[in-house]
Amino acid sequence: MGFETHQGPAHVLDRVSLAVQKGEILGLVGESGCGKSVLARSILRLIPSPPGVLLGGQILFGDQDLLKLSEKSMRALRGQQISMIFQEPMTSLNPVFTIGHQMREVVRTHKPMTKAQANAFCCSMLATVRLPDPDNVLQRYPHELSGGMLQRVMIALALACNPALLLADEPTTALDVTVQGQILAILSELATAQNLAVIFVTHDMGVVAQLCHRVAVMYAGQLVEEALVHDLFAQPAHPYTQGLIASIPGQTPGQLQTIPGSVPSALQPPSGCRFHPRCPKSTGHCALHTPQLLTVADQHKVACHQAHNRASV
Predict the structure, then answer these.
(1) How confident is the model over 48-66, as pLDDT tens digits?
(2) Using omega within 30 degrees of 0 as the cis cutoff, is the peptide bond preceding 50 cis?
(3) Which residue ranges form the domains of the chain, and what is each CATH number?
């Protein structure tokens, strides 16, 4: 996936390959600008074209390649089989319609229900995400609810049609710690109860440790590491992953750790390993040759020349 800009083409996603199973929560982590949200939106084909440009590959959902479906088929699939929770709950709902109006519209688009039936169903969904007094919530407008309440409404909307895959794009970023914990608990319980596959996009490694079963680390549009969550935190193999974990407050004693530099532009990414200008372990080989995502241990893959050398010893 890329974008046409006035400065030239920007390749935002490069050779990204991921799989997620039913009942599994896959964490997708990395700094802002690494392509996480673009990847999530690309699965539902929500990137407008132009400026978005599909450069090839496949997006397989079961035995369907989503890139080959018509727009009509995609509209039928969105919300019913694949749902998404967007990053900002305050801007994801229409401010001029009540919560009930917007929820009923989604439900009745995919389910043959009367207005009364849809209203009762929406109440049950709000109760599922632990919103008190759901009848009253349905009559409220978005600006009358707090950020945590709005995010629960968004989760209820996303799960209303019992999808097989849920894309959660940083759904707890704008919430305080207490509400964040409640939202994560709800997502974890519903994923298990409904055998739901979840791709959880975040830059918060603490949330990943709490919620996810497996983790994929993105940097500058590429996957650099993928592992089970306990393996990733116990033995991070890529220097970028090591830097992210070291940056968690309280993870290391003394001064808060940071990764020097910033994510490179997608217009002119560095040659070789894209992390090498910021990497404390880089060599001349790293600047010339692009590492492949290879298996270094059971269910543990990494794209790093140094990690490959250590694994082969």
Answers:
(1) 887 878 777 889 998 889 9
(2) yes
(3) 2-96+141-312 (3.40.50.300)
Exposed/middle/buried for residue 32 (C-beta within 10 Å: 0-12, 13-18, 19+): exposed
The 10s digit of each residue's pLDDT in 52-111 is: 787 778 899 988 899 899 989 998 888 889 999 887 777 788 999 999 999 999 888 888
Instruction: Tell me the H-state helices in the chain.
Output: 36-43, 71-77, 89-92, 99-110, 115-128, 134-138, 147-159, 177-193, 205-211, 229-234, 239-246, 284-288, 305-312
Name the strands in the sheet holding 165-169, side by side, starting at the edge strand that comes first in the sequence.
Answer: 82-85, 165-169, 197-201, 25-29, 214-219, 222-228, 300-302, 294-297
Closest CA to 158 of 102, 98, 215, 91: 102
Q: Across-strand partners of 65?
A: 60
What is the CB-side half-sphere exposure of residue 49 using CA atoms within 13 A? 11
CA distance 28 to 104: 31
Give the single-character DSSP code of 78: B
The model's pTM is 0.89
Q: What are the angstrom distances between the C-alpha of 158 and each of 25, 168, 255, 262?
A: 16, 9, 40, 34
- The DSSP letter of residue 257 is P
Helix (H, G, I), strand (E, B) or coil at 71: helix
| 109: phi then psi, degrees, rounded to nearest 5 | -65, -35
Q: Are strands 165-169 and 82-85 parallel, antiparallel or unpaired?
A: parallel
Put residue 254 in one of left, alpha, beta given phi > 0 → left and psi -120 to 50 → alpha. left
